[in-house]
Every structure is written in structure tokens, then in C-alpha cells.
Write a structure and sequence with these properties.
mainly alpha
């Protein structure tokens, strides 16, 4: 099994464990779009308590990648996803965070 496949399996396991309701195809598609960042222990996860990290999610993913307009709704969506994954969960995998955000904004077709 490739390193990519191992990571995707990890994301799928977290999806099942937390009951996130993401499709396997969406998880794999988002992971592929993230490129090499999924192989780095730090960049493969999102810190929900770090404002700089939350800004990165908003600017680089929601605005640049998904093409959404900056608004308080984006910040609220990030907070909602962080809470859904568990504020105490130290392993909020970026692929799952981004997949949840894509699903929330109806942008799954960009990844599957």
C-alpha cells in the first residue's frame, strides 16, 4: 500500500470514528488536492485553537480554492467543523477538515 493510500485509510478511519458522514471519494479527492502536505506531521493536521491556522484554512482553502467570498460565515463554518471534529481532538486531519468544509458549502464536485 502506498503512503498516500495509508493516509487516506487513516482519514477514512477518523471519518467513521467521529461519524463525520464524508464519502470515501471526497476524502480521497481532498487528500489528493492537498498534495505533499499530507505527508508532514504538522501540515497534515489543523490546530483549531491557532488563529493563524484558522486564517490559513479560510484564505487558502475557502477563498482561494473553493472561490468563496470572505465573510463571517466562513469563520463560523470553520468553528463548526472544528467543534464537530472535537475541540480536544489533537488529530484534526486537514483532509477531513477540508472535506467537511467542501461538503458544507456544496463544493464536493470539485474533488470527486
Amino acid at each position: 500500500m502506498s503512503k498516500f493510500d495509508e493516509n487516506v485509510e487513516l482519514y477514512k478511519a477518523q471519518n467513521a470514528e467521529l461519524g463525520l458522514g464524508l464519502s470515501d471519494a471526497l476524502i480521497a479527492g481532498v487528500a489528493k488536492a492537498l498534495g505533499p502536505s499530507i505527508y508532514n506531521a504538522d501540515s497534515s493536521k489543523v490546530s483549531g485553537t491557532d488563529q493563524k491556522e484558522r486564517d490559513t484554512v479560510k484564505n487558502n482553502f475557502l477563498i482561494k480554492k473553493l472561490g468563496l467570498k470572505d465573510s463571517p460565515e466562513l469563520d463560523a463554518a470553520i468553528t463548526e467543523v472544528i467543534e464537530k471534529m472535537g475541540t480536544r481532538n489533537k488529530n484534526k486531519y486537514r483532509a477531513n477538515v477540508y472535506a467537511l468544509l467542501a461538503k458544507k458549502f456544496g463544493k464536493e464536485s470539485m474533488f470527486v
